[in-house]
Amino acid sequence: MESTVERQRLLETVSALPEEALAELASFLDYLRYKSAPRTEANNQSANFLLAIAGLGHSGQPDVSERDEEILRNEIDSVHGWSSRSSNVV
């Protein structure tokens, strides 16, 4: 029964608010509704995203950052641009 008393008190408080405060209250109530909505799909998407990127950076190849110019030189043809040949340089 205490829940009913609290709801009644809230309704009385809202009724006593000036008109200009009602838009802000409506916005806040929308936020509370959003915040309390079930998030099973959002959590599932977040988990899938994290699983998808979990292996990034773990290619098993040594650090090639020091050789980036050499690697690009082998990948880019000076006349035709990017080549389609595969390179085993690492």
Could you please describe the fold and organization of this structure?
The chain is mostly helical. Strands 1-2 form a two-stranded antiparallel sheet. A hairpin with a 3-residue loop joins strand 1 and strand 2. The longest helix has 18 residues. The N and C termini lie far apart (72 Å).
Mean pLDDT: 76
What's the β-strand tally?
2
Helix residue percentage: 55-70%
Strand content: under 5%
How is the biggest beta sheet arranged?
A: 2 strands, antiparallel
Q: Give the overall shape.
A: elongated
Head-to-tail CA distance between termini = 72 Å
Order of helices and strands: HHHHEE
Number of helices, where a helix is a run of at least 4 consecutive DSSP H or I residues = 4
Topology:
Blueprint: H1 2-16, H2 19-36, H3 40-53, H4 68-75, E1 76-77, E2 81-82
Antiparallel strand pairs: 1-2
Summarize this structure as a short list of keywords or feature phrases.
about 90 residues, mainly alpha, two-stranded antiparallel ribbon, about 60% helix, about 5% strand, DUF2281 domain-containing protein
Give a summary of the structure in a few sentences.
By secondary structure, this protein is mainly alpha-helical. Helices cover 61% and strands 4% of the residues.
